[in-house]
Amino acid sequence: MEIEIRAPKNELEWEQYYDLRYRILRQPWNQPRGSERNEGDATGIHFALYENGNLKAIARLDFNEDKSAQVRFMAVESEIQRKGYGKQVMLAIERYCKANSVTEIVLHAREIALPFYESLGYQLVEKSHLLFNEIQHSLMKKSV
Ligand SMILES: CC(C)(COP(=O)(O)OP(=O)(O)OC[C@H]1O[C@@H](n2cnc3c(N)ncnc32)[C@H](O)[C@@H]1OP(=O)(O)O)[C@@H](O)C(=O)NCCC(=O)NCCS
């Protein structure tokens, strides 16, 4: 079994990347296609986990000011959640941060994902925004 974590590298891979983001993070709340993308996609660092060439999990990392970076759009293909793919992506992000002088990772976690990030050592800072009027997010952080 070959695992690769890297940015998508051709048109088809980019399509699959945004499609996974859409299906997991937008479609269940009836958001339109296109709503899964934003301006930060041009500057963010994209992480995609391929198992034997098949996309399984994704996340984006944005550099903030002051050696801080933010994880956004973390998603794992629906039928394979809780099998360690999300953790592998987060660990790859942490390695990338360490290699690039980032000392703090922050993120806004959905309520449902709090135990996932806690298991990886992220600490709850405070409740933050409500997405689509219903999904509570909480600011979390970890020193790396
Ligand atoms: C949240 C999400 C990214 C986690 O990725 P995942 O691949 O499912 O999680 P992993 O299997 O890597 O979990 C690693 C560890 O986190 C913890 N964990 C993960 N989900 C958990 C849950 N629902 N409850 C308790 N612990 C959990 C466990 O300790 C787990 O290890 P274990 O399975 O050996 O017990 C993924 O489930 C997902 O995409 N969910 C839907 C979209 C979403 O909410 N994205 C996050 C937006 S902030």
Describe this structure in words.
This protein is an alpha+beta fold and 144 residues long. It has a single domain (3-143), classed as Aminopeptidase, CATH 3.40.630. Helices cover 25% and strands 38% of the residues. It has three helices and seven strands; from the N terminus they run βαβββαβαββ. Strands 1-2-3-4-5-7-6 form a seven-stranded mixed β-sheet, with helices on both faces. Strand 6 (123-131) and strand 7 (135-143) form a beta hairpin. The structure holds coenzyme A (COA). The site of coenzyme A has 19 residues, from helix 1, strand 4, helix 2, strand 5 and helix 3.
Give the key terms.
single chain; about 140 residues; seven-stranded mixed beta sheet; 3 helices
Q: Report on the biggest sheet.
A: 7 strands, mixed
How are the strands ordered across the major sheet? 1-2-3-4-5-7-6
- Do you know the CATH architecture? 3-Layer(aba) Sandwich
What helical percentage do the residues reach? Answer: 25-40%
As a percent range, the share of strand residues is 35-45%
Distinct bound molecules = coenzyme A
Bulk shape? globular
Q: CATH topology, anyone?
A: Aminopeptidase
SSE ordering = EHEEEHEHEE
The CATH class assignment is Alpha Beta
Tell me the name of the CATH homologous superfamily: Gcn5-related N-acetyltransferase (GNAT)
Structural class: alpha+beta
SS field, number of helical segments: 3
Which segments are poorly predicted (pLDDT under 50) over 5 or more consecutive residues? none
